[in-house]
Amino acid sequence: MNLSLELLPKKCDVLVIGAGPSGSAAAYTLAKAGLDVVLIDQHAFPRDKICGDGLIPDAHKALARLGVLDEVMRQAHPSRFLSCISPRGGRIDVAGTMAVLPRKQLDDIVCKAAVAAGARMFAPVRFIAPIEEDGKVVGARLTQSGTECELRATWVVLATGAVPQALMAAGMAERHAPSAIAMRCYIRNDAMTAKIDKLEVIWHKTLAPGYGWIFPCGDGVFNVGVGILHQPSDPADKRNPSRDKSGAANLHQMFEALGKLSEPARELMAGGTRVGPLKGAPLRCSLKGARLSRPGLLVTGEAAGSTYAFSGEGIGKALETGILAAEAILQGAGGDEARVRAHYTSRIDALRPRFMLYERANLVNRYPWLADLLIWRARKSARLQQRLSGVLNETSNPGHLFTVKGMVRLFTE
Length: 413
Ligand SMILES: Cc1cc2nc3c(=O)[nH]c(=O)nc-3n(C[C@H](O)[C@H](O)[C@H](O)COP(=O)(O)OP(=O)(O)OC[C@H]3O[C@@H](n4cnc5c(N)ncnc54)[C@H](O)[C@@H]3O)c2cc1C
Hints:
By secondary structure, this protein is of the alpha/beta class. The protein has 14 helices and 16 strands. Helix 1 runs parallel beside helix 4 (103-116) and helix 9 runs antiparallel to helix 10.
């Protein structure tokens, strides 16, 4: 781990840029199949990542495929339910396989698995720009402590997350602005361990167009945060008392508001101690905002917008799209460049309907009274609860759930 640039080879089969869930999953899959893989990250590992640290069922499945689920669950705080809490205090517990593990630990586990599979990890090393020949990416220019070097690779996988600089340098950004922004901090409050034992997501007009969360990490520590859609010109923002005069989101005010919305939140935040600062970061969602590929290069994970709108969950799909990028490269190992890109695009396209469902569910963030309606109805309908659980567990994809037709059906079935 964290090798220095002096040991960098001149060439490799695949250069993976970014050792978050997506990059490490790609590196693991490629190295395990016997390819010569170099993985780089601008930060030495283990490194912190601003996140809610929630692992929903898709993350569990992907971690199992990478052979690290047992190790993750040895360190994580498990939960069988995601509690959804509406503005009027209504609540339903949606059943699913969930857990919470701070990203410093999670990402380290996945990165170590990639290294154990044979990938060579160089860090802190930053990607500057691709090396191009006849319009094809054939490697990258990298830097460490002011020293620059070049690495040639048959494929470059860009897994650099939501910050757009690397995407822009690679000529892959279609949009610089994020889809959403979110902020979190860790709060210790031992007295709340028994009172908040599920992952909680909270909607309220003071958080619109967004949401808040309280995720128990275990040992009396909670990951508490707020997120908001990044739409500064949205007139709905200006009606909200938690916005400043320009209408821009004020996540700090939203965070304070979260501590007044329910009795457990009040108790947790008023009686707890902050462990570290409140920190924010962007999100890129809905498989939008970037090109997926160009000759010699694939974009994966949140750089490709692989985070779900509505809930901001992205670890599972970052891992999954990293695996898909690797599988596409392995499938075209004979040298058919166009086939690799077509294969990757078709696998990503197959995920789009699910991302569209989460995009439509954004209505609830925008109009939180819909959460009152949905939760009130779900409490009376075992079938609706099952459907919500099916969405969370990815066993069903009821595309109509957040359409006008779907809303009408809420009252008719
Ligand atoms: C506040 C917040 C809360 C969230 N909560 C959750 C949650 O509870 N559950 C969930 O599933 N998802 C959550 N997400 C989303 C989740 O964090 C992302 O979906 C996930 O991190 C994406 O993984 P990735 O591997 O694509 O990118 P990242 O995890 O961002 O990894 C990208 C890596 O690339 C490196 N990098 C970037 N640029 C360069 C460069 N030029 N050179 C070298 N390296 C570079 C970075 O250092 C980083 O290590 C949250 C996000 C935020 C902001």
